[in-house]
Amino acid sequence: MSDMHEHSVGWSRDTLIDEQPAPAAERGVVRWMRANLFSTIPNALLTLVALWCLYQLIAGVLPWLANGIWDAPSLSACREILQGATGGCFAVLTERWNQLLFGFQYPSELYWRPATAFILLFVALAPVLFYKVFPRSMLIFTAIYPFLAYWLIWGGSILTPVCAALGFVAGYLVYSRFITQSFAIGFFGGIAAALVFWWLTGFFNFTGILALEPVDSRNMGGFMLNLILGTVCVSLSIPIGIALALGRQSNMPIIKWICVIFIEFVRGVPLITLLFVANVVLAYFLPPGSNFDLILRVIIMITMFASAYIAEVIRGGLAALPKGQYEAADSLGLDYPQAIRLVILPQALKISIPGIVNVAVGLFKDTTLVSIISMFDLVGMIRGPILASTEWNGVYWELLSFAALLFFVTCYGISQYSQWLERQLNTDRR
Amino acid sequence: MTTLSDPPRESFRLSMLVNDTRYRSYTFQFIALVCVAALFAYLGSNLVANLRAAGLNISYDFLGDPSGYDINQTLIDYTSQSSHLRASIAGLLNTLLVSILACITATIIGVAAGVLRLSNNWLVSKLMAVYVEMFRNVPVLIWIIIIFTIMTAVAPAPSAFRGDDPDASMLFGMFAFTNRGVYIPKPLFEPLGWVVLGVFLISIVGAILYRRYATKVLYDEGRLLPTTWPTVAIVLVPAILAYFILGRPIALEIPELGGFNFSGGITLLGSLIALWFALAIYTGAFIAENVRAGIQSVSRGQTEAAAALGLRPRRIMNLVVLPQALRVIVPPLISHYLNITKNSSLAIAVGYMDLTGTLGGITLNQTGRAIETILLLMLFYLLISLSISAIMNVYNNAVRLKER
Amino acid sequence: QTLSDVQDRGTLNCGVTTGLVGFAAPDADGEWSGFDVAVCRAVAAAVLEDQNAIEFVPTTGKTRFTALASGEIDMLARNTTWTFSRDVDLKFEFTGINYYDGQGFMIPKSLGVSSARELAGATVCIQTGTTTELNLADYFRRNNMDYEPVPIETNAEAQQQYLAGACDVYTTDASGLAATRAAFETPSDHVILPEIISKEPLGPLVRHGDNDWGDVVRWTLNALIAAEEYGITSANIDELKAGTESPEINRILGTEGNLGEMLGLDAEWAYRAIKANGNYGEIFAKNIGESTPIGLSRGLNAQWTDGGLLYAPPFR
Amino acid sequence: MADTAVETSKPAQMQVSDEVAIQISNMNKWFGTFHVLRDIDLTVYRGERIVIAGPSGSGKSTLIRCINALEEHQRGRIEVDGTVLSSDIKNIDTIRSEVGMVFQHFNLFPHLTILENCTLAPIWVRKIPKHEADKTAMHFLEKVKIPEQADKYPGQLSGGQQQRVAIARSLCMRPRIMLFDEPTSALDPEMIKEVLDTMVELAEEGMTMICVTHEMGFARQVANRVIFMDQGQIVEQNEPEEFFNNPQNPRTKLFLSQILGH
Amino acid sequence: MADTAVETSKPAQMQVSDEVAIQISNMNKWFGTFHVLRDIDLTVYRGERIVIAGPSGSGKSTLIRCINALEEHQRGRIEVDGTVLSSDIKNIDTIRSEVGMVFQHFNLFPHLTILENCTLAPIWVRKIPKHEADKTAMHFLEKVKIPEQADKYPGQLSGGQQQRVAIARSLCMRPRIMLFDEPTSALDPEMIKEVLDTMVELAEEGMTMICVTHEMGFARQVANRVIFMDQGQIVEQNEPEEFFNNPQNPRTKLFLSQILGH
Ligand SMILES: Nc1ncnc2c1ncn2[C@@H]1O[C@H](COP(=O)(O)OP(=O)(O)OP(=O)(O)O)[C@@H](O)[C@H]1O
Ligand SMILES: Nc1ncnc2c1ncn2[C@@H]1O[C@H](COP(=O)(O)OP(=O)(O)OP(=O)(O)O)[C@@H](O)[C@H]1O
Ligand SMILES: [Mg+2]
Ligand SMILES: [Mg+2]
What we know:
Chains D, E: Residues 22-256 form the ABC transporter domain. Chains D, E: Keywords: ATP-binding, Nucleotide-binding, Transport. The complex is a heteropentamer, with one copy of chain A, one copy of chain B, one copy of chain C and two copies of chain D. In chain B, the strands form three sheets. In chain B, strands 1-2-7 form a three-stranded antiparallel sheet. Chain B has a domain at 84-185 and 254-399: MetI-like (MetI-like fold, Orthogonal Bundle), CATH 1.10.3720. In chain B, 66% of the residues lie in helices and 6% in strands. Chain B contains twelve helices and seven strands. Chain C is 37% helix and 18% strand. Chain C is built from 13 helices and 14 strands. In chain C, the strands form five sheets. Chain C has a five-stranded mixed sheet. Chain C has a three-stranded parallel sheet with strand order 4-1-5. A two-stranded antiparallel ribbon of chain C has the order 2-3. Chain C starts with a helix and ends in a 29-residue tail after the last helix. The structure holds adenosine-5'-triphosphate (2 copies) and magnesium ion (2 copies).
């Protein structure tokens, strides 16, 4: 084109140049390595350091994994088999597998029950988590699930959870009968109906009717306990969190301050102190003679803890809604409960889901703290009975890595889901 | 204003408490207040009844009693004859110590990991991603226990340093890494030594002033003074000179293996180190994500515009990217500091005597005063948290002012 | 009223330690056993006619008193030292002593220490939440020695620390030391120093002010002790039940007198308590005696007739 | 902008009755210490179409928001359809169900379909069975010419369509009075016309309307009174022709010159 | 859009010298395996105003970003003002301080005031004392007609004002060549004109400019050469009149019909 230095002359290309392959240095492994690993000298050094770290890590872990012993009755037996070679004694996992998962007191012939409950948990969660994929009718199962899971895990007569569920149904029926008239009548009527129903059913004795062998909550342990605490507390804390968030947004100063103080107080203290409260103090505040067992007290405190955090997440969601939504609802004549229920909350909750999931992950990780107040969750099992036993005294790495792995898989899965959901919501919003 | 057109002042009717917007908020607030009061009254009456049944009372008198136990690491004078209150304060200081150390380390780790994760070195950025995901998704308690186990089960016992041909030896002859902790030399100051320290501190101020001056010169005269080497020189040279001129007034007390243990020098307890590093690495993973998000929040266009103006990469970082990224990074950073402080209560799992270990641990055990100690414990933590949030608010407001 | 509560409930809530081999520890199947556990079982057998009708509530040093005070447990059978302030200030009732203990030290043989007086400068692992810390502080102060305490929450972790060499010495009640040492791979590498630095009378305790229940626990324990003294064992008890010459044995076993009725129980209460796990001597031998890995000798815990301190008040 | 509305002669059936729809007398409102509305007196008869104009911040929005109690006024009297607006919640409810309101930013509920947006209030406030509410809603959606969008979500519609849905949503409550707060100012020029057309149609049916707008073409065509506000007070009111051709007040003149100027 | 720029005859003083400002020969660039720029040959003389047009994705932005080394090219030669672009950091610095660039999205630094935005590079790169840099900056801010905004922050300005600041910021480095990458395409129509006016003024002063834009009015008025790119290659170039009235290449024709059609 150097012929066109007379730049006033027009010029047009007749034949297009075809695409050409990039020069060798721009293609393939070499280019990739050059661009991604060795682009500058410091970068190359960094790569070498990283490679060295990686090598050290693999060199350390690989033989330990590869030479692992999966079948031995005790640590000393393991050591004998290994004859001084490096290798993990994973036999402790196979040997104590059930204890790690279910604790040491859950009757072993009943393991299928929590296992079933666990599997069904996914079925119950699926329509909530992937609300676009699964039919809405599956939500019915989600509603049934808590009662079913209770029955499976704790056992006892099926009529107990059925009555509990029927109480909710009764409450809901009354609620939906009166809700169109007034929220207050519907809401309190519903609660009253449920309470009356439960009170009435309290007169019957269900023992033995369609009963599974009952298991005390004291006997829950292992990873199962973490899962129970995690799911129960998160699900209970969402409604409380919503109430707190609404309260904090309210323009009634007293209600607002009650919520603010509660939220800030709970968020300002470590979970462990709340667990101490559950462990050593709460009993003093309960009516004399009542006997809440530890797991229940812990659930109360963790739920309080989680609801404060969830309230903050939901408050964010509420704040993100434009004021026009409230005004539009008002101008259509919807009253406050209706506006909240029909217009505000559905939107605010949707915005808050990723935040709630993050809180849930954090909370699930925090359930391990119950090991400090002598409950035998996964970590408690490891720190307590298993490491204390004569056979397995000293197998730290295998047990701790197992616990870490279990939590990693669960939490990583959930947080990946939350990220996926966040992207989904972003595209939804157009 | 003619009162005629005003709505007639209706006389007050009871139904207005529910139906009238003016009164109904009072009604609801009153109901809420009554509910809360009732709840507290109920809990309180239970408490009183339970205490009476058990023949106990609530009293903080025990705080003045001698605690009777020893604490292995205190920042203040403390013996087993000191009061429980003093033990709690020693614990509080230990909490603050480990929190501050962990905050600093977590920031360093987090910033490094966050920046490296954005590096165009594929391997490094992937490694950092693995680090972040791995640490974020496993409970901090497990990390604390793992690191503590590394400390106790992997590091050599002090006895390994004994003998003619010991299994372990001290680093530079000064640092001993044992499973009880790390022993490092302790500077011993003669009177003149304090002068050297003073000189050193003044030099640091001097270095800061110099950098200010360099910027001023650039602004006023358009000369860019070198900063890196002069800073190093200003910080080090006077102190070193003073050290030698004054006749080496600072000696090092090097830890030595005594009867059972190393003695002399400064001891960093194994439990402190475990807690410190576990908190730092765990929180560092979260901070790394924030740093990454902060830097990414500065659009590529900003960097390109700065580059097109002829700025060099380091200046682009300092003048354009960082000031913008910091606004995004700092608020979550501070809430991570809060988390570190709260998580430091897990010290109890490794026997580090922080606030939870002293007040909420041994004092509680010894006195049996559960309600009192736990209330006090929560109060202490609440105070720390509230002060940190207050700082956060001040910072946020300061930044917001600059923005608009 | 605890008695009627327990009877209504049908189970006894018994607080035990979270795990100390020989005294109270769950085995691989989650079945609790041990010296303290046997006391619980005896009480359950006496009151509920079923030694397995027990809920074992693991407690730590921190939680045990609240658990008892709040009624979560009916009795605490955990190595708890009988002290003045616990009895008086914390409002508990010690119902007797089932083990005379004292705090001691364990140290690796390789350190070549033979007396606690040589421990100046040592790092000491303590299981927190007992009187141990206080005794230790007192002892070292009295002897003008330095030490570095390493407080640890559970026995399992203390053990781990001690074995890894993170502390030179492990201190707790001598019985606990023996039990801990028994769980080591090579117990002979560790010595328990001769000094006992404190008196640690351990016994079951109940809440203040519920004397009926306190009596049940107290006399169940006494029945176990007396049974050994009189030679009632789980083997010969059925024989003796048929009637013996000794009026005391007859009164214990309910064939004579109405001691059970006075306690609010039936006549066979002590019979069941002893039948459950044997008399004190049998329980001792089975759980912590010399033939077990723990290998404690009777020492102070021998019957008064054998030069020990065990001395059951008369059953009449 | 001023000429986007259809310029035809005023529809014949636009009649104003003598019945009073809204009576505002001596109304004052403060935001904190700021006196937004000062001594407002305004009587609107049934069937009237009133356009309110005025510079930004003059209190136009506040005025009409006071009418359906979205804002509380502090002094004076507002009577809507015979009901005196007081702080009694029943009164407020009555008035709100008589008065429909359309906002600048539509404020449709994004999580509900168009149809659900329209039936929400009838079902929950008027307690109309769902199928009937659906029927009414479809009727009004046809009227605003978007029945085919009934099952879409607001986000999938253009601004003009959304505003028409907002009008339909208000109409579904069968209000006797409609308030419009700058219904076209957030719209692209192409879409303004479709919304104004809908409003003109509504006006032709005799709906009482108060409309804050700067669409002077619309005002000319539809309004039977134009009110000019400034600094929280009604400065001038007149029939549209008079108002535009012969403004009395200097502020009105200034304003008109600005708004018609470009 | 095409007619927002002022349509006057070309300014008299727009003269093109024979000195070469930019010489690109046989330049090729790949993104991975994708061949973005193919055999580009282009000579720009000092004082020339070149407009680059072409469909989206044709490589226009990439081409001008190669000129000031924001993108690396893989083959061929780029010479700017006598300096050959190599990977030597000194060369890149020289070239970047000769060449100013204005982006589509302004890319002002939001944490600095307008004045600081303009003085940042002069102080840190050119090492000009602050007070002098301030003076220069005010001079150029006056030129783009917003001296009064000097102490505000970018977020407080309208898009058009921001883009003018961006131009001023580049000018403060006293570049000999200016590159514009669709400087008006992120702006509202009202603001396009004020930015184009600034650019016209710049052109009149004889600045060498390469401008990617679809503002054909601007091209007609200011450019002395229009370059049409497609699929990474220069397909046609000509004087604006010829280019618009008599395009040679079918692709150009197609493109022009699209862009002028609406
Ligand atoms: N919630 C509020 N709190 C305090 N002041 C307010 C509030 N709402 C509006 N104002 C103030 O009241 C005055 C009138 O506001 P209003 O919205 O009624 O004006 P407007 O005439 O509708 O203006 P525009 O044409 O901009 O919509 C303004 O000065 C505004 O700043
Ligand atoms: N960093 C990059 N990595 C990979 N491909 C890129 C990159 N930047 C641009 N491209 C691709 O190179 C091609 C040319 O991009 P360029 O931005 O130069 O087009 P353009 O002509 O400026 O288009 P527009 O008018 O949309 O700005 C496009 O197909 C684009 O997808
Ligand atoms: Mg308005
Ligand atoms: Mg482009």
